[in-house]
Structures are given as C-alpha cells and as structure tokens.
Amino acid sequence: MAEDTEELAARIKRINEATEQVRGRARSADGAVYIETDARGAITDLRLAPHAVEHGMNRLAMLIADRHRAAFANAEAEAQQIFTELSQEQPRLDGRSGDTRRERAPIWGSEQSAAPPTYVPTHRRGDSGTGRSSFGDHKYVV
Known about the structure:
The chain is α+β, with helices and mostly antiparallel strands and 142 residues long.
C-alpha cells in the first residue's frame, strides 16, 4: 500500500511540475500588446509597443485585459491537456497487498468509468492544494 501512495505522490508531483511550466501567450492584432501568463493566470511577461497608447489609455487597458484573457485561456487549455495525458495511466489494485499493475484508465463516459478528473488550479479550488475544503471533497486529482 505504501508503494501505491508513493507512486501516486510521484505522479502528482510530475503533474504539478509540468503544469507549473505552462505558459499561455497572446498578442494584439496590431502588435501593441504581448502578454504571457502561467496556468494560474499570473502575468509572467507583458510587452507594450511604443504605439500602444496612440488610441488612448482606455483602449490600451481593454487590449491588455482582452489579451490577458486569451493568454490565460491558452495556458489553461495546455495545463488541462498535460493533466489529462499524465493522469491517463492509473495503478490498479488486484486485491493483494502492494500489488499494482499498470493499465490504461477506462475511456471516460464508458460504463465502467467515473467522471473524468479535471485540472483545477489551486487558486480556484480554495483548498491550498489539499483536495479538501470546507465544502468537502472535490471531484479532481492533484
């Protein structure tokens, strides 16, 4: 059983490390704004071209907010893809203590599968990454 826990902890660590490296990027059509975010939506790079303020500060603010949303959506999609790929292989217990064999997870939506796990960034779940909050258990891994 301890091996199963260690294997799960190692898989969670790989998922967390991989999703921490994710970056989403977006550029405005006129090239005035370039923004990069991580999978949590934090801005990791912001570049403004010299002509960015030519149409006023309100337009610039809207461009930054719009490109931030697009970059964040890109980062979230990539993090979800990484999470799904790294979550596919799951250990199966066959009833004997400590005996695990690798098998592909059931196809989501098939009769033998539960709802698919989904990537939920820590800042959105409100549980500091424990998987538990004052609202009880969540239906996700990591």
